[in-house]
């Protein structure tokens, strides 16, 4: 199948499929006219890539894990260093979540402090006072 059909069948844009190829994650054959030709197995490969990306893995991580992939899940075969890679990525995500939570708390603090200050310094305008002066 050509890239357009793979794109339709996986609902992944052709530009992303070319990117996956550039990253070494997807390996099409080339026809005599230079077109990319994919086997039906490419559908499974793209599905695996998308699910691992959704799990927060980088394309570099996926390239490392790809020999361990089986099924659309993807299910992972116990390959050397597999769990170390997954656990390292999970630690990175946990650290990012902690950082985001601290940033969120700091923003709440700034918002609360600013709202308290605004309520003390700014009184609502009384439009009737303006009208009475005229």
From TrEMBL:
It comes from Micromonospora qiuiae. Coiled coil: none annotated. This is MerR family transcriptional regulator. Keywords: DNA-binding. PROSITE patterns: HTH_MERR_2 (PS50937). Residues 1-68 form the HTH merR-type domain.
């Amino acid at each position: 199948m050509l890239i357009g059909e793979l794109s339709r069948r996986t609902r992944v844009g052709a530009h992303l499929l070319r990117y996956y190829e550039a990253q070494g994650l997807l390996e099409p054959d080339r026809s005599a006219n230079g077109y990319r030709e994919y086997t039906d197995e490419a559908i499974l490969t793209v599905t695996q890539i998308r699910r691992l990306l959704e799990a927060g893995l980088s394309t570099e991580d996926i390239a490392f894990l790809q020999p361990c992939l089986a099924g659309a899940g993807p299910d992972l075969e116990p390959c050397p260093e597999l769990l170390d890679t997954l656990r390292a990525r999970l630690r990175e995500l946990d650290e990012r979540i902690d950082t985001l939570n601290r940033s969120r708390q700091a923003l709440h603090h700034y918002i609360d402090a600013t709202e308290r200050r605004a309520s003390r310094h700014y009184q609502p305008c009384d439009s009737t006072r303006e009208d009475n002066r005229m």
